[in-house]
Amino acid sequence: MEKENSFAQRQKKIYNWMAEEGINLLMLEDTETRRDQNIRWLTGHPGDALLFLSIDKIDKKSADEKADNNGKAILVAWDINLAKIYAAQSGAIISSYNDFNRKPSKAIAAVAKKFGIPVGSKIEIPSVTSYPSFLDFVGELTDFDILCRENGAASEMRRLRSIKDAEEIAIIKKAANITNELINSIEENVKSGKIKTEADAALFIETEARRQGCEGTSFDILAAGADRSYAIHAFPTWTHAPFGGQGLSILDFGVKLGGYCTDVTLTFARDLDPKQEKLVNMVEKAAKLAVSMALNGTQAKDIAAAVDSFFSKSKKKMPHGLGHGIGLQEHEYPVIRNSNENEWVLEPGMIFTIEPGLYDPLLGGCRLENDILITDTSSEILTNARIIHL
Amino acid sequence: MEKENSFAQRQKKIYNWMAEEGINLLMLEDTETRRDQNIRWLTGHPGDALLFLSIDKIDKKSADEKADNNGKAILVAWDINLAKIYAAQSGAIISSYNDFNRKPSKAIAAVAKKFGIPVGSKIEIPSVTSYPSFLDFVGELTDFDILCRENGAASEMRRLRSIKDAEEIAIIKKAANITNELINSIEENVKSGKIKTEADAALFIETEARRQGCEGTSFDILAAGADRSYAIHAFPTWTHAPFGGQGLSILDFGVKLGGYCTDVTLTFARDLDPKQEKLVNMVEKAAKLAVSMALNGTQAKDIAAAVDSFFSKSKKKMPHGLGHGIGLQEHEYPVIRNSNENEWVLEPGMIFTIEPGLYDPLLGGCRLENDILITDTSSEILTNARIIHL
């Protein structure tokens, strides 16, 4: 019942936004080559589907008044057996992708007909639609005004999803607790010698995360022993190489619970030389600095700029962004990056990573990543990733 | 040395194609949201990069004569430490993505300048470039003619990559041998009771594949016990649920060796009722039928149509395509699907899956998937996936 409400609430937000924008039909697509977790966010269905949202009438109101637009959703799923289970509470009509020859343009035409979308209406398609496909859509759907734009539905959903609702915060906190238990067990097992290789660490996480009820991990676990930690993202992601030996070893992982991701990075340090010690200290200080700045109202880019500036005093440069939102995707919004175009301002309900890191082909790499929730007056560090001295 | 040759040979093919098409500069992009293994195919670098190819002069010749166009490659990598290792033999100049503010349009402008690309030249960008991004490129690169098209470089590389060269066939055969050893061990371990859960099966594969030198698995292992095998792709992909119990259990996996993927599916059958027996028999017969048709010169869609027709005689319908090419991606070309637009014709050197399957919410699912190499006069079944009766 609670689930039904949150899917319906989210759909309602989109219906009202559609009315505001004068859009009669909206298409979302999740495919192997381009994932879109908005479909899961709106219906619960985990993927390989099209989702169509259509509004019944257009009730435009000012932002202050409460618009009340209802609509209908059709989920066109590759696997309808799965869709019937996962989208059961979303109120969406479930249809098979095979009915439309697996072609979005065919599906859109059929749905527009079924919903009686008036000729000349605005239909929005995904902002990631390729230019050649866009031309096809426009060519096939000549009766409608086809929109494909950056500042459209995708951007609105990024904005909405950047602020987690109570249900989402609760599930991410639960995922964070599982993550924290894993971190503690991993520390124990590395220290006792039970985890001796990258594979030991990765397989431990894969097994235990699911034992705790997780769907799996948020992304391919990155376990890089001291010989491989110089890479931002080790390749291959894990091997049977030693882990936790002399120098710096990195372990970057997250768990996925009910679709929601955590993302943390631990660094294991053993018998460091003075240069490696310095690298580790700098990363730890950068993490503290960043976390202390992460407050309601702060510009995200200012935090990243402060860390860049701190590193540059020692002539170090971080080769990646400082952090990113987490949620149904392992990388979502806000973006915590030092660039002029980054206009994200922190708000209560945002959950994101802070992950300073430094990498050197000779010294190895060190990254420290935790997940932070912004609250009205402060912040909560949800995870307890740390530098572990062996 | 051998590697250097094959990267150089592949680049040469693209340089000649560019000359034919009158394209001076070609950009490829591999990012988290849109993977493009063409970069690995051309340089060895496994990902998160832009690749620019530029021809020195334009030597157009007819297809019969041998054009001889040379060119330059710049690999703009997110992680240059990795790029220096993996792309070392490709001859590409290696540059950091951070030098261009991580923006493809900035990088393209800088590279065009560095290579002295004449004003008015044709520059091709990825066919998957979104319509809004395409407008940005065109707006920023006003001095050039920007091409973004389906029948361009991406399509040419799909065609080239659909036919594997000797080096690729050798590595895929090696990956297939590892896969076959895994299949045998899995059968043994399920029969002996060592593999009792989906997790046991998945973790066994993850561990053993890497022990045999693989980078990892080709995709998330799908291990679905009898309660979950009705889904085409079980969700979550594997859990701690029982595997190999009464009914039908599906195990779909592949290994990745030096970048190259295998992809097989086994079905485990225990104490079947007559309807389940029938399902299994039909899938086995469909696989045999399809494999027998897979020969040089055959239209791919005809094979898929034959299987669809075979199933429809028993009022069954397969909810997915019959097969797909494998290589650096787990899904590439040719496509073995029954649709009018599918114009792929089988040629020697093509390697693809044949994977008939039937799924029923009550009976469970059965899929049998093997990897086939087309030779001049016949075909070779590289893998030994099978229905395993327990």
Top keywords for this entry?
20 strands, alpha+beta, 10 helices, elongated, homodimer, 390 residues, six-stranded mixed beta sheet
Number of strands of chain A: 20
Strand content of chain A: 15-25%
How many helices of chain A? The count is: 10
* Portion in helices of chain A: 25-40%
Structural class of the secondary structure composition of chain A? alpha+beta
Largest sheet of chain A: 6 strands, mixed
Taking all Cα atoms into account, the compactness measure Rg of chain A is: 23 Å
Order of helices and strands of chain A: HEHEEHEHEHEHHHEEEEEEHHEEEEEEEE
What is the molecular shape of chain A? elongated
Strand arrangement, major sheet of chain A: 4-3-2-1-5-6
Please state the average pLDDT score of chain A.
94
Query: Assembly type of the shown chains?
Result: homodimer
Largest interface (C-beta under 8 Å): A-B, 52 and 52 residues
Low-confidence stretches of chain A: none
Task: Outline the structure in words.
With 390 residues, chain A is an alpha+beta fold. Helices cover 36% and strands 22% of the residues of chain A. Chain A has a six-stranded mixed beta sheet with strand order 4-3-2-1-5-6, with helices on both faces. A four-stranded mixed beta sheet of chain A has the order 8-9-12-20, with helices on both faces. In chain A, α9 packs antiparallel against α10. Chain A is elongated and about 70 Å long. The termini of chain A are far apart. The relative contact order of chain A is 0.10. The model of chain A has no long low-confidence stretch (mean pLDDT 94).
